[in-house]
Amino acid sequence: MFDEIFNSSGDARAHYVPYLDWLNSHPSGYLNGKMAEADLLFRRIGITFAVYGEEQGTERLIPSDPVPRIIDTKEWAFLEKGLEQRVQALNMFLDDVYHEGRILKENVIPAEKIYNNAQFQACMVNHDLPHKVYSHICGVDLIRHSDGNYYVLEDNLRVPSGVSYMLQNRRMSQRLFPELFKNYNVAPVDHYPLLLQTTLKECAFSENPTIAVLTPGPYNSAYYEHAFLAKEMGCELVEGRDLFVRDNRVWMRTIYGPKQVDILYRRVDDAFLDPLALNPNSQLGVPGLIEVYRSGGVAIANALGTGVADDKSIYPYVPQMIKFYLDQEPILQNVPTRILSNPEDLAYTLDNLDKLVVKEVHGAGGYGMLVGPASTKAEREEFAKILKTKPDGYISQPTLSLSTCGIWLDEDLKPRHIDLRPFVLSGSKTRITPGGLTRVALTEGSLVVNSSQGGGTKDTWILNDINQAKEVF
């Protein structure tokens, strides 16, 4: 198992030595006191995440561990190149399948996996977008295996969340431990809202566009983030009922009268955007929105129909996309994946359920999955019945040993499994904020890091200059 702080001999990795020296220079209880201070501040700010189905309430704080996850410059440079390559190929794939469909005609990807996919939106066929960008904001989930290499666990191209927690973790770290940032040359992340605003404006069809963040409302699990990003960008936070269509444009109701909206940064799923064109029972969308969108009267980010590229049944084909569109070898590798609609893959999975992770292709947030090594015999038997009935709805992967990073518990560092979600912005060019959101499984031995499943977060530090990190505190 790979640990981010200590090597296999138990010695601290070079870029963590100054931090551990700083940590050991403080008396017992120091970090616990800072954690209590952070908890109070987070409560005052109202940084919450709704957890559906919990009896004790609909909202809770996401635990934030004070020990940062630190990545050195060389390692991050490698990840940046891989992320840019991957997201570029995914956007090219989306433009292709909604236009010529070359990758389907050449049988690189079976056409039925696209046209029978619930995320495919026929209304996007032959709809041209600025810079041919569909996923303007992409969150790529990375894990590090015991071999020390990074692997892509999944691509989030629809409405990826978590960036607000990345930003607030950094602000809290800087507030509580300012001396650390004087000695570590940590790449900044606070410019993300400006980068997001710039990227969104580049997808508009007009000059000086007006941006609005479209939210499902305060009961959505990520509502805090929707409000936070709207405030940071200086734009309006709106619900579907605040908007209406007139004269082939989208307008929002204000106390000063209607104001035209040129860009919707939507945090609403495809099906609920327009009850006239999509789900007729939706109370969250804007009647007539898709017609305006198709005619170029409004831009939507991320674009409608991006989900066809981050479906878990399409994920295994991303390396082929990179080779097909860019004529390059993938820099970042996929986790080996079996597609259970293939009889051989299904048979293997059924025979090895106790060793594999099985995921629903449309699942998210840690739901609809079986973690074989952590499951009971009864759970595996029940899952086997489901897989035999609907094999095309699932994939399976080996149980990778996600790397660990210490959390502060009982006056000591306790290793817990982590992943990393960097955020990639695509407009006229690709912009990647250094780092991302490190999610951590707070339960010992658990591999589920999702906030909806009880996970926590860490500040992620990308070092601009590793030599500067070697100074003595």
Structural class by sheet pairing and helices: alpha+beta
Strand order of the largest sheet: 3-23-22-19-18
Number of distinct helices: 14
The count of β-strands is: 23
- What distance separates the N and C termini? 30 Å
- As residue ranges, the low-confidence spans are 466-473
The helix content is 25-40%
What does the overall shape look like?
globular
- Rg over CA atoms: 23 Å
Main sheet properties:
5 strands, mixed
CATH overall fold name of the domain at 336-399: Dna Ligase, domain 1
- What share of the residues does DSSP label as strand, in percent? 15-25%
Mean pLDDT: 91
The CATH top-level class label of the domain at 336-399: Alpha Beta
How would you characterize this protein structure?
The structure is a single chain. This protein is globular. The chain has a domain at 336-399: Dna Ligase, domain 1 (2-Layer Sandwich), CATH 3.30.1490. The chain has helices spanning 17-24, 30-45, 73-97, 102-105, 112-115, 163-176, 178-183, 192-201, 223-233, 289-294, 307-310, 318-326, 343-351, 377-389, and strands at residues 48-50, 59-61, 64-71, 137-144, 150-156, 211-214, 236-238, 243-246, 249-252, 259-261, 263-266, 299-301, 333-334, 338-339, 356-360, 369-371, 394-398, 404-409, 412-421, 423-426, 430-432, 437-440, 456-462. The protein has 473 residues and is α+β, with helices and mostly antiparallel strands. Helix 3 crosses helix 12 (318-326). Helices cover 29% and strands 22% of the residues. The strands form 6 sheets. The protein has a 5-stranded mixed sheet. The protein contains 14 helices and 23 strands. The two termini are 30 Å apart. 41% of the residues are buried.
